[in-house]
Amino acid sequence: MFITNQYPDLRAVLPQVVLHRQYWLVCHHDLLQVARIRSVMDFLRTSARTQAKDFVPPVQDVVGLGA
User: Could you tell me if 56 and 2 are in contact, meaning their C-beta atoms sit under 8 angstroms apart?
Assistant: First the structure.
């Protein structure tokens, strides 16, 4: 969860700095089709997509348009 979601009193120190994050999910080729590995990878991928807003700050805070 992005930290400002928990603490709305926090303000960006450098609002002009835009963070771009990438997350890599890596697995040995031989394990890609193992059911338990595939399940974990699918879960992580789905969770990251559905909760993307918790990984980055709201747009208005990033560009300095927030209150």
Answer: yes
